[in-house]
Amino acid sequence: MTRRWWLPAALSLALVAGCGAGEPSPSGSPGGSTTGSTAATVSPSGSPSAAPRRLTPEDDGATFSMVVGRSVSLVVSDTSADDPEVTGDAVQLVQVVNVTASGVREWEVRAEKPGTSTITSRSPEYRITVVVG
């Protein structure tokens, strides 16, 4: 009888590889992209999804959650885009100054204290709500 020792090892490896470390994907939703999406902004429990590493104007209308001390990027691919405005004091926007021409404008979104802030712009037009807990 031939022993198939590799089959249990392969199954164990597949199970371990399929399990996450309990952290959300870059977009805050399983299998999401790093650019964000308004399709998964509310979890099944009805609360906002965790903010992805990168917010973009394509996240228009979305609501995301962050914890105090966390930072994510807001990236706009139009170098002539307006500076975004923030209402509420839960987050702070810090412009990222690029040394070389990158073709994008970028800000760091810092979760400062519990509350709700809304990030808006007119050109390009978008509105992103961030709930800090």
Give a structural overview.
The chain has 133 residues and is mainly β. It has one helix at 6-18, and strands at 49-50, 54-55, 63-66, 71-76, 85-87, 91-96, 105-111, 115-122, 125-132. The strands form two sheets. A five-stranded mixed β-sheet has the order 1-3-9-8-5, with no helix packed on it. It has a four-stranded mixed β-sheet with strand order 2-4-7-6, with no helix packed on it.
> What fold name stands as the CATH topology?
Immunoglobulin-like
From the alpha-carbon coordinates, what is the Rg to the nearest angstrom? 19 Å
* Low-confidence regions: 5-40
Corresponding CATH architecture: Sandwich
Summarize the structure.
By secondary structure, the chain is mostly beta strands. The chain has a single domain (29-38, 47-132), classed as Immunoglobulin-like, CATH 2.60.40.2020. The protein has one helix and nine strands.
Give a quick set of tags describing it.
133 residues; mainly beta; five-stranded mixed β-sheet
Explain the layout of strands and helices:
Blueprint: H1 6-18, E1 49-50, E2 54-55, E3 63-66, E4 71-76, E5 85-87, E6 91-96, E7 105-111, E8 115-122, E9 125-132
Parallel strand pairs: 1-3, 2-4, 3-9
Antiparallel strand pairs: 4-7, 5-8, 6-7, 8-9
